[in-house]
Each structure stands twice: as C-alpha cells, then as structure tokens.
Sodium-dependent bicarbonate transport family permease
Amino acid sequence: MDPIVLFFLLGMFAQFAKSDLKLPEALTDSISIYLLLAIGLKGGVTLHSAQVPGLAAKVIAVIVLGASIALIAYAVLRTLRFEKLDAASLCAHYGSVSVVTYAVCIDYLAARQIAVEAYTPMFVALMEAPGIIVGVLLARLADRGPGPHPTADQSWGQVMHEVFLNKGVLLLLGGLTIGAIAGPDRLKPFFLLYNDLFKGILGLFLIALGMQAAARLKDVLPYGARLIGFGIVAPVMFGAIGVFTGSLLGLSIGGMTVLGTLAASASYIAAPTAMQVAVPQANPALGIGAALGLTFPFNIVVGVPLYHQMAKLLAG
C-alpha cells in the first residue's frame, strides 16, 4: 500500500482510538496553502515550455464535465428521496473537486513513473466552480415560492466571491501563472520547496484529514444506506465519466487517470463555504460528511488505482 494512504489511515486510527494527537488548525491551514501553491508552481514550471494542443476544447470540456456531474448527482439524490435543498447543496460538493485527492493521484502516478500532462493543475481550478454554480442555481429553483427570499436575492455576490476568489482557485492559478512565466531556471531556488518537500508535507496533511474523516463519519450514519451508497458508488460512476472524457480529449493514460480522479472527487473546502452562504437552509453536515467521511477515503485507498485501470483499458 502506498505510504501516502498509510498516513491517512494513521490519522483515522488515531481518531477512532481517541488518541490525544491533534494538529493545530493554524498548521493544517498553512499546509493547505503550501500544497495549493506547490501544485500550481509545479504545473506552471512544466507548462513554461510546453505546447497545449486544443486548449480551448479542453477548457470547455472540463467545465461542462463539472457542471454535468453536479446535474447527474442532483438527479440521483432526488431519486434517493433527499430534500431539494439538501440535494442541491450535496450535488455542488460532488460537482466541485478535491485538490488533496488530486495531489494523491499525482503522487501515485509519479511513484509509478507515469507521465501526466503539465496543464492538469488548470483542470483543478476550472472544475472547482461549475458544480457549485449549478448547485446554487438548483437551490434557487427549489426555493421559489410565495413570499420574499432575502437570502436568494442578496447572496449571489458573496457566492461568486467564494467560488472564484477562494484560496484554492487563487493559489492554484497564481502558482500556475508564476511557474509558467518564470520557468524552471528562475524558480530553481524554490525547487526544494515545491518539489522535494511536497510528499512529506502531503503525508502530514493526510494524518489531519484522516482524523477529520473519521470524525465526520458520525454525520453520515443517520442517513443510512442512501448516503453511504451514494458516497461510495457515485465516485466510481463519475470517475468513469471523467476517464472517458479524458480519452475523448486525447489525454495520456496519466491524464485520463487525473481527470477521472477529479471527476470522482468531492469538495470539502470550497463547496461547503459557498453553499453555506448560498443555501443556509441545507444541512451542512450532509455534504462535508459524505465528501470527507466517505468519498475522500474511498478515492485515495481504492479510487485512484481503479481510475488508472479504467484509463489503461480505454487506452488499449
């Protein structure tokens, strides 16, 4: 088993065993900032001298992919008899993406010396927003009815600020831009920071996430098999859609695996914040509990290798 996964399992064990292990919130916040910037810089440096064939088509495709996953998730959740506002909030989490799941996928591929297109960090930034926007729109449609709706009328500016200027998008695109402009030579003094230290710091962060995931399981259990089944089955379905989309775009096996992983992932940082602003009536424990308590552990233990196998099968 990959050491990165073992770090995560260590965190889960610590939580279940009621250990006094605790990582300060300020430390985990700092690590998340580092990881986002490092991913952007690493992608930007490689992008500095790379050609991106069919860039416009790829940009449109990944945006449509994120929005489509949110719509499919909403339809499935309504079929499973979730309330409209809860379904809208939850589908936004699954239409958006998890940057840490992406980082685990990149590490998995690098350990196996599988090449990945340099511009995949751009996919992370592009796919973060569409699902959230679809979730907000669905919530607005569900919330129509007699009487005033001050939340629906007043929160759009806040929601758009959270979607497009949250730290994830800002740091990813900022790092990507800095790396692409500066190139490897001028960023050589920072190589240790964004490359050599990356895996060790990611492992430390996964201990914290393992503890959080174990703690969030209690938010999932009251919803029973409906939510547990969705949190495990949905990423496989969305991952297959992502891998197939990558194949249509002409991506390598590594690129298809990354796009499948992104499609299968669920946001537990940007989406909860945005949906709390946009749909305060929805149960916030539902989205973050499923995304962090179920889908994230599934993806890093089982999902990433599964999407890699899907990609290899499609590539022939």
Remarks:
- Confidence is low (pLDDT under 50) at residues 146-154.
- The chain has one domain: 3-8+25-315.
